[in-house]
Amino acid sequence: MIPVDPPAAPTLFQAQLRPHCSLGPTGFRVLMTAVVLAFSGIGTAFYALGAWPVVGFCGLEVVLVWWCFKLNFRHLQRYETLRLTAGELELRRVSAAGAVERLTFQPYWLQVRLEEEPSGANRLLLRSHGREVSIGGFLSPDERIDLKHALDAALRQQRSGPAGL
């Protein structure tokens, strides 16, 4: 006899949260080409004036700009996934290095809280049984508000039970 896994519970709500990236690979190449050309022009002008050490600093600045963008692109690999079923809310976090953290919450007791600051910044929290977890740290304040409303609606629907009963 071959053991069979039980069927997965139907998903009532699912969201994948990713950091926003406004600069794609083509844009990065264009930007770096412009940076190299600009610093080459600056370095050439200073070299012609006899200030040849500036050329090395211009090259160092190009490398520093490239490294900062690559570091930023690495951090864009992280994401969070929320999945609500009848029995649990699963939060799955994947770091930029690929490490996976999985947290589960019983949806009946789960509170979704939005802590707002006078500056307009906010923090979205999942709270249950004395445990509190911040989610969507890389989202904009408006995106966190939208996520809170969507998650609250899904939890209300889940708590009310199947439609028609």
Q: How would you portray this structure in words?
A:
It is a single chain. The chain is of the alpha+beta class and 165 residues long. It has 2 domains: 51 residues, no CATH class; 83 residues. Helix content is 41%, strand content 25%. It is built from 3 helices and 7 strands; from the N terminus they run βααββββββα. The strands form 2 sheets. Strands 1-2-3-4 form a 4-stranded antiparallel beta sheet, covered by helices on one side. It has a 3-stranded antiparallel beta sheet with strand order 5-6-7, covered by helices on one side. Helix 1 runs antiparallel to helix 2. The longest helix has 24 residues. The chain is elongated and about 80 Å long. It starts with 12 loop residues before the first strand and ends in a 5-residue tail after the last helix.
